[in-house]
Amino acid sequence: AGRILFALVSSVIIVIVGGGLTFITRPVGSAYLFLWITYWAVQASRQRGQPSEYDRRQRLVYLAGIVYVPTLIIIPPWEYVTFSEPIPRDGPLAWFGLALFALGIILLAFAMKALGGLYTSHLGIQPMYHLVTNGPYRFVRHPGYLGEIMSMSGVGISLGSIVGIGLAIISVFLVLKRLQHEEEMLMTELGNEYQNYAKRTKRLIPFIY
């Protein structure tokens, strides 16, 4: 319920503070707003989970989010309606960005469905934890993180936002930081089972990384 409320409130902020009515009267703007709400609707099913010693190592990531999220809500839509350069607005690149945003949401939804209640905000081995290797986890070990990166990249590209693209780059570093700690945790807690899984899969990008 909290994330659904956040989706609605942040959408209002996007319209009023970020882009104004001009934003949603453009096809790209209205499609973006729909995807934004969808993204947070998917996130609404994510459980918080139990904090752990591994989670405490994520403080830098959580602190970065305090600045990251408000900036992401306001600045890219504002750039979109205020400037026409250096990235062209409303062309094929914008629709490519929206497609990337949508694909990221879909991948994230499949990853969350495969893990169920084990897909949590807090980093830790949750009760009844077990290794999941079906769905998108057959191909990469962290499809949810890949979905997040795709979605955030789609934000910047679709709105032609320099700040949005910069935030997407930052999100890659934040994800890689969390991923490093998560891999260490899984290797330690699950032992050979996870090591064998890691030998036959890539972290984020199939066949590449």
Radius of gyration from CA coordinates:
18 Å
Oligomer: single chain
Mean pLDDT: 88
Instruction: Give the overall shape.
Output: elongated
Number of strands: 0
Ends: how far apart? 35 Å
As a percent range, the share of helical residues equals 55-70%
> Treating each run of at least 4 consecutive H or I residues as one helix, how many helices?
7
- Look at the helices and sheets and give the structural class: mainly alpha
Low-confidence runs of at least 5 consecutive residues: none
Explain how this protein is built.
The protein is an all-alpha fold and 209 residues long. It contains seven helices and no strands. Helix 1 (2-25) runs parallel beside helix 3.
Question: What is the topological layout?
Answer:
Elements: H1 2-25, H2 27-43, H3 59-82, H4 92-115, H5 143-158, H6 162-190, H7 192-200
Helix pairs in contact: 1-2, 1-3, 2-4, 3-6, 4-5, 5-6
Essential attributes:
209 residues, mainly alpha, 7 helices, elongated
Q: Care to give the gist of this entry?
A:
The protein is mainly alpha-helical. It has helices spanning 2-25, 27-43, 59-82, 92-115, 143-158, 162-190, 192-200.
